[in-house]
Amino acid sequence: MAISKDHLLWMYETMYKIRCYEDKMAEAYAEGKSPVFNIGAGPVPGEMHLATGQEPAAAGMCVHLKKEDTVTAPHRPHHHAIAKGVDLNRMTAEIFGKATGLGKGKGGHMHLFDPDVKFSCGGIVGAGIPHALGAALAAKKRGTDWVAVAFIGEGAANQGAFHESLNMAALWKLPFIVVIENNQYGISVPKTASTAVPSNDVRAAAYGIKGYYVKDNDPIDMYNVSKEAVERARTGQGPSIIEIETYRYLGHFQGDPEVYRDKNEVTLLRQKDPIIRLRNYLLNECGVTEETIAQLENKATFEVDQAYAFARESDYPKPEEALEDVFV
Question: Is the pLDDT of residue 130 over 70?
Fold first, then answer.
C-alpha cells in the first residue's frame, strides 16, 4: 500500500510530540510527591496515566481522520488528544487544574473534552465505546462520511459495552472503529490471565465485521491498517476492530511499584522504540534528511514547552467560579 510521505512526517512529529509531552508530564507530576509518594501533592495532584511507548496507535489512526470525525479515549488519553488536534495549551492547563483549561480546571487528566475537534475522554474503562457508537449513528443518519473511533485498552474488550456496541454497529453498518491498545496488562493483570482469545481482532468474526491485528507496535502497519478501516467506514462498509500489540514503558499509573513485571522487560522494549524505528524508516526508505527530522523535533519540543509554560502561568479558578457550568 502506497504511503504518503507527508503523512509519515506528520506521524513522526506527532509521535515525537507525544513522547516529549509525556516525559515532561512525568517530571511535573513528580514535583512535591517525594520522598514518600503522596498522590495529592504537587502541581498535578491525583492519579496520572501516561502513554509513553504507545504512540503508534494514536498517530497511525488519527493521521487518517478529519476534524469532523469523533474520537473517544480511555483513562490514558494524552496521545489520542494530541493526535486528534486538541488544543495543547488548554489541555495542559486542564491537567494542572487551571481556569484556562478545556473544562476550566474541573475535569482534569481523565476527563478531557474538546468539542472543537470532537474529542472526549470518559476516564472509566470502556465508557467511551457507546459514546463513539452514538456519534457513528448520528453521522450515518445525517448522511455524512464522518467516522467515529473508540480507543480502548485490552481490558475493556471484556466489558459488556464493547460487545453490545459492536453488535449494534454491525447490525446498522455504522462508520465505527474500535482500536484496542493491547499494552499487555490490565492494571497489573497480564492479558493471558484475563482474556480467552489470543487477540481481540478475532472477535470481529462474531459480528461479521472486519478485524485487524498490528504486531509489535509497528507504526507503518498501524498506518496501513487504519487507512483501510477508515476508508471502509467512510464508504458505508461498516465497522472494524483493530488490535495493536503495544507497550507502556511506565507503570499503570505514576508511582506504580510495578511488582507484577520484570524490570528487564521495559529495558528490552525500549530497544525497539517505535519512534526510533519510524525515524530510521524516514531516513533510509523515504529520503528524508537529518535536517528535516531535527526541524520536526524542534517544532514539537517548542509546542510542548509553550503548553507547559501556559499552564503554569495560568490562574486557578476562583472559589466563586466553582459551580459555573456545572449542572446538577
Answer: yes
